[in-house]
Amino acid sequence: MAQILAPSTQWQTRITKNSANARPIPAKMLGSLLFKQNTKGTARSTSNFRVFAMKSENSTINRMEDLLNLDVTPYTNKIIAEYIWIGGSGIDLRSKSRTISKPVEHPSELPKWNYDGSSTGQAPGEDSEVILYPQAIFKDPFRGGNNILVICDTYTPAGEPIPTNKRHRAAEIFSSKKVVDEVPWFGIEQEYTLLQTNVKWPLGWPVGGYPGPQGPYYCAAGADKSFGRDISDAHYKACLYAGINISGTNGEVMPGQWEYQVGPSVGIEAGDHVWCSRYILERITEQAGVVLSLDPKPIEGDWNGAGCHTNYSTKTMREDGGFEAIKKAILNLSLRHKDHISAYGEGNERRLTGKHETANINTFSWGVANRGCSVRVGRETEKQGKGYLEDRRPASNMDPYIVTSLLAETTILWEPTLEAEALAAQKLALKV
Amino acid sequence: MSLLSDLVNLDLSDTTEKIIAEYIWIGGSGMDLRSKARTVSGPVSDPQKLPKWNYDGSSTGQAPGQDSEVILYPQAIFKDPFRRGNNILVMCDTYTPAGDPIPTNKRCNAAKIFSHPEVVAEVPWYGIEQEYTLLQKDVKWPIGWPLGGYPGPQGPYYCGIGADKAFGRDIVDSHYKACLYAGINISGINGEVMPGQWEFQVGPSVGISAGDELWVARYILERITEIAGVVLSFDPKPIQGDWNGAGAHTNYSTKSMRNDGGYEVIKKAIEKLGLKHKEHIAAYGEGNERRLTGRHETADINTFLWGVANRGASIRVGRDTEKAGKGYFEDRRPASNMDPYVVTSMIAETTLLWKP
Q1: For the complex shown, is ipTM > 0.90?
Q2: Which UniProt keywords are present, listed alphabetically (chain A) (predicted)?
Q3: Structure confidence by residue, pLDDT tens digits, B172-220
Q4: How far is the C-alpha of B193 from the C-alpha of B141, rounded, in Å?
Q5: Among A279, A291, B127, B192, which one is least packed by beta carbons within 10 Å?
Q6: Cβ contact, residue pair B156, A92, below 8 Å
């Protein structure tokens, strides 16, 4: 669970020219980190971590690793920039790379680019160009050196955001004066499930069957309780290297499910950091030969779903007496429950059942230390009279640009009518 | 095993001045690359300073057995990413002992076109988008595809990530760095629409160097797939049915097109290309008729069509170019197995030298 610490300036790290010392996670190290399961004698799991196309059968040594890890900085000033964008489904990430003549520090130094929108469901074939605007830079943990990852958003050639571009509106909300003044902090807890490649059944689960019931797996260690730790650990370091504000990881209640947290981040950066961390995660699972799922309820039945709890605070909430501001925010959220729920991720109705540490999707509730609520307030916050709140409703496949900006909008910019407010206060037993 | 690794990676620069030069040439099919290595007494940066060499043309379908010597003329030097140090790759073309280019030597004619004063004055730039498919070695089925079956339909794979969507990224990434190391003007890479298919772009390169750079990039790619145990295919339509083909779209501009008012020059050039559609198509790669069907982002092989931002056209002009009134255009007709010497020189010839 995210603890609000003072935001570190880690996210402000820029690429310095002399990062010749910066080494990427070498393919070899990733390979040795990878979990090699011995299936002899156990019918436990047939998952097989293979790095695709790295096997060479007739040569006795493999020289491709040298090339992948080649540090080209002594030979050229050129860097490789991997432009990343969100595709037509709103949850699929796409990327391609280009050579930039020298290292850059700021996204504004990078050229706009374009891609074939007709291949991602974002434009028709006869008018297929979609323009990429660079918005945030991170160091590339796969290529090392001065190479970079670039989070972009997407526009028509005329300069209009295309319908799947949710960042644009979020950036507008986060630049409005009232929101800027409140310095909104976000800590996002991204849960995800790892699946075996050919069968789409969770990692560590016996094919055609189920593991023992939930109980032993949360934060556990051991070959019978923790599946895929290397992916989680490699991801942690890769994100730290990249400059993403990753604050922790843990194994989750359902076996094969994990969580990491990004934050505290201010405003629009929460979205940029979460999307880049998802990109890095899927690149790592690609190498590990395992499928990443952000589905909010991957397995029906007595198994936890996957959420993306969003911790949130404003300047007023963090200062003395902030608890009043927190209660007011919860009140506003209760009056816009349906609007938020519809923006909190596809398929969430399968997850928000009222069981498995969720609140029912049709009810808005809040409580201190209560994991069965829509919004939870920590005991520390209640005791100190200031702090933050945790919105437990978003699903793991939510778009962080939408969720963070909607939270800011509802609690800072939107005002309910007085009657509605009074009624809600009564219902929630809030004296505001 | 570690001794072999140490030996292959030995840095010789401390022990000797000598370097290893890998001479590369195009074989009898016009598409197969061949190479062999020789020791050169010291580091070389000018191809003219390297000795001419020869090889057994009867073993590559390029000469009869009784008169088998084919002469190699070094034309371009690149750093060797496999041997490193001061070792080099040398792109060559092929001649008879009498000094005439053999029939499969397309570079000689291209070099003539590119040294024509009217062409030199226009400084032709090329950006070539090379698509290719990776196949599993023993079954010649694309990598990542289940044996005896097909993956889910196209949609999720273009620029995709994840073990269920991107197959063979390590090959693509090592190729990118190897080319940058070698000094090739590689400008980008991306995953393609068909799973197991990738693309890299080389350019902008001027004149004859576009061809040299693309051929050496292809050589480096096939050496890397050799290491990875995967087969490289430049077939323009590797899998029949609702699967994209592989092309080598060629972006082109001249000085006049890049200057103000260039859009008019572009339109005139496109008109000329339209008048010579059949001749170009014949030179744009074997088997292209299986690929240019009018579907899967191609224009039908018998039709010449151009449009702005239209990926179903023979020639596409970018929105940027239309807006700025100057820039470049993209010839989408060449197949992935085209010869860049032929295509680049033909485009220059038709647009700059030919008067209809």
Answers
A1: no
A2: ATP-binding, Chloroplast, Ligase, Nucleotide-binding, Plastid, Transit peptide
A3: 999 999 999 999 999 999 999 999 999 999 999 999 999 999 999 999 9
A4: 16
A5: B127
A6: yes
Cβ-nearest to A283 among B161, B226, B323: B161
- pLDDT tens for each residue of A195-248: 998 888 999 999 889 999 999 999 999 999 999 999 999 999 999 999 999 999
Q: Which residues of B touch A27 (CB under 8 A)?
A: 170
Structure tokens at B335: 């197949």
DSSP per-residue codes, B300-354 = -TT---EEES-TTSSEEE-HHHHHHT---EEE---BTT--HHHHHHHHHIIIII-
> HSE-up of B190 (CA within 13 Å, CB side)?
22
Nearest Cα to Cα of residue B336 among B197, B190, B214, B234: B234
For A28, which residue in chain B has the nearest alpha carbon?
B170
Instruction: Please tell me the predicted confidence (pLDDT) of residue A432.
Output: 57
Cβ contacts (< 8 Å) between B166 and chain A: which residues?
A: 286
**Between chains, do B189 and A286 touch, taking CB under 8 Å as contact?**
no
Indicate yes or no: CB of A59 within 8 angstroms of CB of B177: no
Half-sphere exposure of A143 (CA within 13 A, CB side): 26
Per CB-CB distance under 8 Å, the chain A contacts of B309 are 126-129, 157
| Chain A residues within an 8 Å CB radius of B180 | 72, 75-76, 78, 80, 99
Inform me whether the C-beta atom of residue A68 falls under 8 Å from chain B C-beta atoms.
Answer: yes
Amino acid (1-letter code) at residue B132: Y
Q: Provide the residue type at B246 as one letter.
A: A
Query: In chain B, which residues have their Cβ closer than 8 Å to the Cβ of A157?
Result: 309, 319-320, 323
Identify which of A55, A61, A286 has the shortest CB distance to residue B5. A61
In this structure, are residues B210 and B220 in contact, taking their beta carbons and an 8 Å threshold? Answer: no
Alpha helical stretches, state H, A314-409: 315-318, 322-335, 337-343, 348-351, 379-384, 400-408
Question: In terms of Cα–Cα distance, which of A98, A188, A189 is closest to A150?
Answer: A98
Interatomic CA distance for residues B132 and B245, integer angstroms: 9
CA distances, A65 to each of A80, B174, B304 (Å): 18, 8, 45
Nearest to A80 among B176, B224, B320 (CB): B176
Q: Are strands B197-206 and B230-233 parallel, antiparallel or unpaired?
A: unpaired
Strands (E), chain B: 19-26, 33-40, 53-56, 69-79, 88-95, 125-136, 186-191, 197-206, 230-233, 248-253, 306-308, 315-317, 329-331
Share of chain A above pLDDT 90, in %: 72
